[in-house]
Amino acid sequence: MKTTVKIFAGACLALTLGAGAAAAADVKVAIKDYAFAPAAVTIHAGDTVTWTNEDQMVHTVTFKDGGASSGGLAGGATFSRTFKAGGNFAYVCSLHPQMRATVTVLP
């Protein structure tokens, strides 16, 4: 009986410890019709955002914090950035500055 209790307790502990280890997410943002869709995303630290240019016009993903930016993205091209720390990250298309959006990263 004591062995069964120890095994059960060990299994519960393993499940509890593993519950906090969620896999990182990859959130998709489309660049279409001269806009980022969605224009605001909220993710967790460690998650990645991937932008896909669905327009025929070249666009960029340029962060105001000076972080990794895409450079020119032709139609069909993608760009990804993994966010390691919490904060608010505003970005624009440097070629079309009316295109603005944000990534909010929760710790």
Give the helices and strands, then pairings:
Elements: H1 2-19, E1 26-31, E2 36-37, E3 40-44, E4 48-53, E5 62-63, E6 78-82, E7 87-93, E8 96-106
Parallel strand pairs: 1-4, 3-8
Antiparallel strand pairs: 1-2, 4-6, 5-7, 7-8
* Helix count from the secondary structure assignment: 1
End-to-end distance: 43 Å
**Strand-residue proportion:** 35-45%
Mean pLDDT, to the nearest integer, reads 86
- Specify the CATH class: Mainly Beta
**Cα-atom radius of gyration:** 20 Å
As for the number of domains, it is 1
CATH architecture: Sandwich
Keywords:
107 residues, alpha/beta, Immunoglobulin-like, four-stranded mixed beta sheet, disordered N terminus
Q: What would you say about this model in short?
A:
The chain contains one helix and eight strands; from the N terminus they run αββββββββ.
Describe what this molecule looks like in 3D.
- The protein is of the alpha/beta class and 107 residues long.
- The protein has one domain: Immunoglobulin-like (Sandwich).
- Helices cover 17% and strands 41% of the residues.
- The protein has a four-stranded mixed sheet with strand order 2-1-4-6, with no helix packed on it. It has a four-stranded mixed sheet with strand order 3-8-7-5, with no helix packed on it.
- The protein starts with a helix and ends with a strand.
